[in-house]
Design goal:
With about 300 residues, the protein is mostly helical. It has helices at about 1-15, 15-30, 40-85, 90-100, 110, 130-150, 160-180, 195-215, 235-245, 260-275; strands at about 110-115, 120-125, 230, 290.
Length: about 300
Amino acid sequence: MERIKSITKNLSSKYLWMPLMLLATPLAAQSDGLSGYSQATAFYVVVGLLIVVALLVILLALNLLQLVKAVMKGPESEAKESVSVEEGPSWLVKTWAKWNALKPMEEEEDLIMDHDYDGIKELDNHLPPWWTALFYLSIVYAVVYILVFHVFKTSPLQEEEYEIEMALAQALKSEKEQTIIVDFDESNVPYNGDAEALADGKKFFEAQCGVCHKADGGGLAGPNLTDDYWRHGGSMTDIYRVIKDGVPNTAMIAWESKLNPVRLQNVSSYVKSLRGTNPPGALPPDGELYEEDANN
């Protein structure tokens, strides 16, 4: 009876709580605000939990079977079994040997194959049962994957999931930009000399505008932005208006739909700050001379 109590205690402490912990994990994640998983991720998590729970149920059934056998044999058989167990290999060793289909050393002579190389002989061992089980499980998983993603299309593929995430991010960005409140427009936009604002404008200019104006503003397909000559005016409001509305029939597109007013101001301020930098290889003057005044 002491052995039965010990087995029961081990069952309750080792196996009965593990499925509950596994099933409670995703619930805890949801309560912490981490429930924003895609359908594919949720599918993988559920399948993985089901496999783990199934394995735990099998282990529980094996231990219950062992408990029933111990009850049916009685005290005397139990005492004999305990002696034999102590003398023979443990249950863990037997299970490991069974799962790997290990053969005893005495049978290796029957497993030796005819060919050898440099004195090294090969045994005709079969694949371990656990490896074969994983192989068949991978086949089942592949079938389920094809059905879910390619036949019934209940979950998006990676490219589709990326497009969905990008659309959600763009919608969130647009929603945030709609809440931006500014006290200026293209007629009175002020110059922003803040280092952070200029760095933001520089990053955008080098990535998007440098193709035509060069990264230093010296001009390439587009005009030089570092001197005092401008085609459409060199004041802060002029620069802001050109970036916002673009220039018809030229490569200068309108950025109003892609940049919020603050970002437009940052880019305009950076372009304004390029005046007088005189980078090497800059294009010659193009346009009319612009003279700065106190209001610009």
